[in-house]
Design goal:
11% strand
Length: 300
């Protein structure tokens, strides 16, 4: 298959959740040939088809026989099971899934079935069926799979204005962990900060707005300067007294999150200031208190 064939290929989605609907709508808006949807729940496939102005298919056999590229956008835990049901119909097709975690190896025996197998994952937080597709323009898609075909997928996404990165199947789990940490785990930290300001009497809208401005400013610094040079605050300046006061003011769950992050950040601080002694700060992060009489080498 060449690039032109890929761009013209009719694309079908098995699964009509947030990812499948968002990709289908995005592809359609970019002028790609989207066939439609099949889902375990016909109502969800019908909704997705209506939203994207495509077809609601009645069976796996029908959608696979009608489309050249089949994307499995079912929950990760269901991919292998649905694949077993789809196997009799996939000869000559491009098959893919949109899991960030699993590789194309989840399509067992694909290489003996005259088809191409791949995984396609948008590095984006897809939170809505109706609106997330609007945020996919310019998003990075990570690609993995059949080496004889994955380059065609690169061109497919590049022609829509998206960046791509081909990764190995061995790297998928680390890649997915990185995505989860930078997206959802950041949400946990923001939520904890928001709650602390609420405890101080801030209104929720005020707390959220002010913390967002602070976080965005630091993210801008990270983008331009890197993590190490963007590090500021009491931990970076080796101020154990302040960090200890923070720890004492937090509840058990908050304290665990704070000290875990602080321990990691101490390594960044040491990289930024190799001449400073962070021994007591490391102990404080690990134990929640530093040695009696011991002093941190605080630097203003």
């Amino acid at each position: 298959m060449n690039d032109v064939q890929t761009e013209r290929m009719q694309i079908g989605f098995i699964g009509a959740g947030k990812v499948g609907v968002s990709l289908g709508k995005y592809f359609k808006e970019k002028g790609r040939n989207v066939g439609g949807y099949y889902s375990l729940t016909r109502a969800s496939a019908a909704w997705a088809a209506a939203f994207t102005q495509t077809t609601c298919y009645e069976s796996l056999e029908e959608i696979i026989s009608s489309c050249g590229m089949i994307l499995f956008t079912v929950p990760d835990s269901a991919i292998a099971e649905v694949w077993q049901q789809a196997k009799p119909y996939v000869s000559g097709k491009v098959i893919g899934h949109c899991s960030g975690l699993y590789s194309s190896d989840i399509f067992s025996d694909w290489d003996s079935m005259n088809c191409h197998a791949c995984s396609v994952h948008p590095l984006a937080a897809i939170s809505s069926k109706e609106n997330a597709w609007r945020e996919l323009s310019g998003v990075l898609f990570t690609l993995e799979g059949d080496s004889s075909y994955v380059k065609d997928l690169e061109t497919f996404f590049y022609s829509m204005g998206n960046r791509t990165r081909i990764i190995s199947k061995e790297d998928k789990i680390k890649y997915h962990a990185a995505a989860a940490i930078s997206s959802n785990y950041m949400t946990a930290l923001f939520s904890m900060s928001e709650q602390l300001l609420l405890d101080c009497g801030f209104a929720q809208e005020e707390a959220r707005s002010e913390l967002y401005a602070l976080a965005k400013g630091n993210l801008d610094h990270i983008l331009t300067q890197g993590c190490v040079q963007s590090l500021t605050g009491p931990l970076e300046r080796n101020d154990c007294a302040t960090v200890e006061k923070h720890i004492s003011a937090l509840n058990k769950k908050q304290r665990k999150i704070y000290t875990s992050c602080a321990e990691y950040l101490t390594d960044l601080a040491q990289s930024k200031h190799p001449d400073r002694d962070y021994t007591e700060m490391r102990k404080l992060c690990r134990d929640g208190e530093h040695s009696p009489g011991a002093e941190c080498a605080e630097t203003v």
